[in-house]
Amino acid sequence: MGQSLVQIYLHIVFSTKNRYPFIDGEVEKELFAYIGGIIKNHKGIPFLINGMPDHIHILCSFPRSICLSDFLKFIKGNSSFWIKSKGSQYQNFDWQDGYAAFSVSSSRKPNVENYIRNQKKHHKAIGFQEELLKFLKEYNIEYDERYLWK
Predict the structure, then answer these.
(1) What is the pTM of this model?
(2) Which of 86, 92, 131, 138 has a C-alpha 20 to 30 A away from that of 21?
(3) 9-108+116-148, which class in CATH?
């Protein structure tokens, strides 16, 4: 085969440090757009970014030219630097150390988009920690809870 062809969709979830509610109405849309730009700059496609004051969900295509940990390092590092420039109320902003990333099949992509689009509705019934544990169970991901919430 003379070319590399890849189609990998990712559902990425990570929270603010200690799940502090930094992502308020003032900065939310700008932050999501900024993160979308980071993804595009690394040859990914941001399909949908949404979240709550303490965490975000990203549905994007995964670029074929970068490893996952570097991709997330760019997203989290650049967006953290950017948000700190938005005012004194964001000076202590940080993302949590880790992240969760789940592969999404083409057939499930619309369902994941719908889930991410309706974050505020979902979180009336379920908290972030319960939500993440549900995803880890659904995707059969082993974890050590001592390190999960850092």
Answers:
(1) 0.93
(2) 138
(3) alpha beta
